[in-house]
Amino acid sequence: DSTTLTIETSIPFTSHNCEPPSRTLETTPKELMTFFRDMALMRRMEIAADSLYKAKLIRGFCHLYDGQEAVAIGMEAAITKKDCIITAYRDHCTFLGRGGTLLQVFAELMGRQAGCSKGKGGSMHFYKKDAGFYGGHGIVGAQIPLGCGLAFGQKYSKDETVTFALYGDGAANQGQLFEALNISALWDLPAILVCENNHYGMGTAEWRAAKSPAYYKRGDYVPGLKVDGMDVFAVKQACKFAKEHALKNGPIILEMDTYRYHGHSMSDPGSTYRTRDEISGVRQERDPIDRIRKLIFAHDLATEKELKDIEKEVRKEVDEAIAQAKESPMLEPSELFTNIYVKGYGTESFGADRKEVRTVLP
Amino acid sequence: KEMTVRDALNSALDEEMSADPKVFLMGEEVGEYQGAYKITKGLLDKYGPDRVLDTPITEAGFTGIGVGAAYYGLRPVIEFMTFNFSMQAIDHIINSAAKSNYMSAGQINVPIVFRGPNGAAAGVGAQHSQCYAAWYAACPGLKVLTPYSSEDARGLLKAAIRDPDPVVFLENELLYGESFPVSAEVLDSSFCLPIGKAKIEREGKDVTITAFSKMVGYSLQAAEILAKEGISAEVINLRSIRPLDRKTINDSVRKTNRLVTVEEGFPQHGVGAEICASVVEDSFGYLDAPVERISGADVPMPYAANLERLAVPQVEDIVRAAKRACYKSSSLAASA
Hints:
heterodimer, A: Rossmann fold, B: Rossmann fold, pyruvate (chain A)
């Protein structure tokens, strides 16, 4: 089906130091259906991770992305895998968007060999270098200079590609953001700083942490765009715009107004610092999947039953991946000592009891 | 032929930049100013501003950018004006650089060099005078190199730049101007030293002295004095703090049966402490005397010249400790 549909983003873009892109854009039935399916898959994956965590099959930290799916999907729709993405610890869906598989996700979460980092990284450390995904970073804000460094590499290598460095509203107040942004602007690096503003840095509301929560303006001399991050088309349009801008003029900030339904991490019920009404209000009025569902119905592209069937398929896919992940073996103890260095020069490394466990690093 | 450590470092950078277009330099004053200590002199003219980048005075920002560029496959050489300033960026050295290869199961290696002067210079006070060898060497994933001579500086810096892993390269400001003899082999552009191998600077049979950076020179002076008093000291230039050449150290101690460790850093949890532990674990039966540790005093560096002298090891401290290990001195406990 090659029909094109003309649609409008939910609201106009608000801009800082630049002319905003048009809110009118074209899409196709195929794109709409793909967005629906991909976001439903992400949603289902995160809900399943929640259950696995509660069943104690996932350890440690686990930060879920449900509610924010439109950012990952809209961004991917605007760029190629030669462009780079780097993000913080809420990284499962970004990884999936880059072409990672459900099996790699669940196996990593369960610490199995088939995980994307062979089980050595965990929830916060997913990578897919062959598709330009550089993690998966656990230290708030650190991924921003790292992303600008990727952009430096792209410019240095004359690759004509860009890097999207994602961070939350919590990290938006970090000093290293401003250090890296200053350098990126001085050197015209093709860096796009994407503030996923889900309005809470852990449990601290944005206005309690930021004197100015208008994050798209916080770059001062760097242009910015405020985007409805719950509208996948707005995200796509903004990312396309930002990529063109960055290749020509250097860095730009995109503030994605989004929302996480889950708490900050699994230890946070997410209800002490915000009201249940607030959460259900966003679900009812701004849910990114629901928005696409409505567009699909408005254009008569599928019936309710057909979308339900897609959701069933997605659920099956997730369940199958979990079953496969559970079959994946645990790591060999010898893996404890691999990947410390690329070149270990035959030096010794030690286990907890060095008389018992010592090995030579290749 | 002689060469200063400064020229050795400069020529190593020059040759590696010329050999590999992915190598670039970044840091404060490395370009137009020609380097705060002139290590990068002439390189901006030769390689241009795309490869020699002056940064603002924002370590967290430019170090993070350097590590990101290394993720992408470039080979950054990041200069810290002194390693004291690397504290502003230590998260990127440890969490972003050292751990990525492991966390990603080998997907993201980080071929980067962090270099600059480390430890005490002269009269610059507490915040500019700390040795970070023990700090960085405590972290798996990093390699930590400490050149002493011009040969070390050339061979180790070239090895560091060619290495696929993150390397912390600790220089010493007071050595930059010192000249050392260099062979034709050392001057050849293919010259490179192995990482993780110590060098026996002087052979001896009575006592082993381990040292790195500037303290190698002091230990060699101490060995001269000891020789006149009939004590034959073996001086080991560690060159690499991580990986640590435990074999060379233990082999030497098994021969001499006595050990003095020397470093400028703080004593607690220091490089000497680790060497001592290694020898106690692997060569306990060979020791004929308690291990002696010479280190910086356990105080922040004072400014006053007389106090500063008391805070850093002197040649006579090494001599005294070696004699003590050889039971050649009565109790000369320093009464400060």
